[in-house]
Amino acid sequence: MTVLEQVRPMTPWALAAIIGTMASDARRYSIMLPSDVADAARELGGEGGLSALVLAAVRGELQRANISELLEAAEEESGPISADDLQAASAELARALAELDARGHGRE
């Protein structure tokens, strides 16, 4: 899932939760973006604006890095992950997401 797919479906309360998290111990940074990218990112970020989009992007990258580290450690300990194991994990994830959606806790 891309960062845009993560942020676009967010409800205003989800964005507010992100901003609330940021407000408690946030630091201000200055970044340079081409104006067209910045304008599109602000619009896509909705009520949370550019900050919400950047936060979602950075969190996503950190999660991917953590997952990569875990996979590398698992492969060092147990050998390469088989295609069957990957397929079983994908099926389990799909089942869990479907269960969340059925309970009304889907990805909003």
Any overview of this molecule?
- The protein has 108 residues and is mainly alpha-helical.
- It has one domain.
- The chain contains 5 helices and no strands.
- The protein has helices at residues 3-7, 12-25, 35-44, 49-78, 83-102.
- Helix 2 (12-25) crosses helix 4 (49-78) and helix 3 (35-44) crosses helix 4 (49-78).
- The model has no long low-confidence stretch (mean pLDDT 77).
Entry keywords:
about 110 residues, mainly alpha, about 75% helix
Mean model confidence by pLDDT: 77
Strand segment count: 0
Tell me the major beta sheet.
none
Count of folded domains: 1
Structural classification: mainly alpha
Strand content: under 5%
Cα Rg: 17 Å
Which ranges are low-confidence, i.e. pLDDT below 50, for 5 or more consecutive residues? none
Helix content: over 70%
Summarize the structure.
With about 110 residues, the chain is mainly α. It has five helices and no strands. The longest helix has 30 residues, at about 50-80.
